[in-house]
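INFO worker-7 received task bundle
INFO bundle size: 2
INFO processing item 0
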Amino acid sequence: MEGFNNSRVSEFVLLGLTDSTELQIFFFVVFSILYLITMLGNCLILLTVISTPHLHSPMYLLLSNLSVIDMCLSSFATPKMIVGFLPQHNTISFEGCISQIFFLHLFTGTEIVLLISMSFDRYIAICKPLHYSIIMNQRVCVGLVVTSWTVGFLHTTSQLAFTLYLPFCGPNIVDSFFCDLPLVIQLACIDTYILGIFMISTSGVIALISFLLLLTSYIIILTTVKKHSSAGSSKALSTCTAHFIVVLMFFGPCIFIYVWPSTNFLVDKVLSVFYTIFTPLLNPLIYTLRNQEVKISMKKKIHYQYFNLGKTAPQYPVQ
């Protein structure tokens, strides 16, 4: 806590996405709707997986954890950004700013490892189907989830290990809608070149390597499916393409922002919106709602809850 006491800055000013009043009202409405849809969609997926016994498999356990991370990633800054569109609500305390940095790197670091775990799960299921139940058992799946959160925590701890003790004596203006490390460390009263290099090596390079690993896994999966089935190749290509779009939307901004942290362009704000708002919204659509088994289970749950409010439960044909 000594780092907080030594800081001369008690709060930061977040400039947000725009200073236009008309655009602020528009963004307030749009992002409020997107945030609500994101939370409801991921919540519905999580409840469906938990309450449906036949979905208690490694793949769906990883998907449910992805929904949890997406809700967290969407909540660490979006509510504050929405409130920031209102007059006189564009400041954040020093402690709140540090908390945003902590949770940002915790959730993004965790999601990176979880996406790699999901890719590994699909690789085993498609390329080694006879060994899937042995390799991807419940213990391994739980281990992957625990590992993802552990790596995320270690990553964010390493990012803040030195940031907490930097002297912030002004200015205190952050040109974004949330506090992020590349922008905040530029406000320190000392030379942060070494810290910037450390940040690049632990965030930008890790994101780049993870992206290349995921790209390689998708290529291997598609190559394997194409060799065995031309019919399955088309379906796998469609699925992998959809997955890759989300991966690109998540990793692309991370790689750009953290590999070139000294830049300060409007495009950085736009890219930040992608992995904090749009990616958590698209993940349930791409990874889960395209899955027929999950869609059927969700429809049954919704119908059951509707008819359970005083109506007779509907009859479903035997699949």
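INFO item 0 finished
INFO processing item 1
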Amino acid sequence: MTVIVRDVRLSVPEDAEAFARVRRAALPHMLATGRQVAHDLAHAHPDAHSRPLLAEIDGEAVGTAEVALAHESPEPGIGEVNVFVDPAHRRRGAGALLLRAAEEHLARAGADTLYSWVLDEPANLAFAGRHGYRGSRSAYFLRLDLAAAALPPREAPPAGVELRTAADFAADPRPLFELDALTTADEPGDVPAELTDYAHWLATTWEHPLLDRELTTVAVAGGRPVAFCAARTDGLGRYGSAMTGTHPEHRGRGLAKLVKNDSLHRARAAGCTEAFTGNDAANGPMLAVNRWFGYEICAKETRHVRRLG
């Protein structure tokens, strides 16, 4: 039995499918498809120095690593590495080899600080600790049985607000980009992000194969988007809330609940049976919104950090 680590080959569709299969096995709370992985690889920003990796045992993919610089952060030298191993193939050395290859690549690319999300389970936390990573903030995965959930009834929007879908902005999605950038800038997290590249956003967000524009609800006031719930679907009956955000000047009006409720109703009508989302553990307002819908915490992950050098 020999474990090898190699690059994911963009020209080989089977590599993207294998990457997605391992991700679904290791992290079933996140949507992953071969088409999505191939799209992400093809549109990785050059400043990210992205290098996704596969670990194989006797030709079978058993582990993956997402490896990149945080190019959207205003702070230089930050790298991100997330290692996932199929639960059926753990304790065979794949995770350690993936991590070593990822760290070497990021160090060559100029990273001096590495961040990694680690599932909050004893074996995973111990693995991170052995390799010099220390825990910081936490986040939750939440699940809603959409087929059985008693969703709140749809409500009329406040005066001066109307509900649309992202599909209504197909001719000019820039207003959605501007709102996404504004809400991303103050999202809780230990690595700040600034969305400034509209062309890259078009390729990686607007044209993303998992983004469902018909299920993405947008609240509009004064002719401009002021709140949104970005929906992703995988064609397997699974729906994911990629981001729910409200313009700072329109917060406190219940718009996050309004757009998310509308999106969930649309998703169920479209045949989705499971809904997933994620929340920073410190984001109390959004956690309260999701609990109001009936979401339940199904897993926890903790952000870990390691300083190089």
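INFO item 1 finished
INFO post-check item 1: The mean pLDDT is 94.
INFO post-check item 1: The first strand starts at residue 3 and ends at 7.
INFO worker-7 idle
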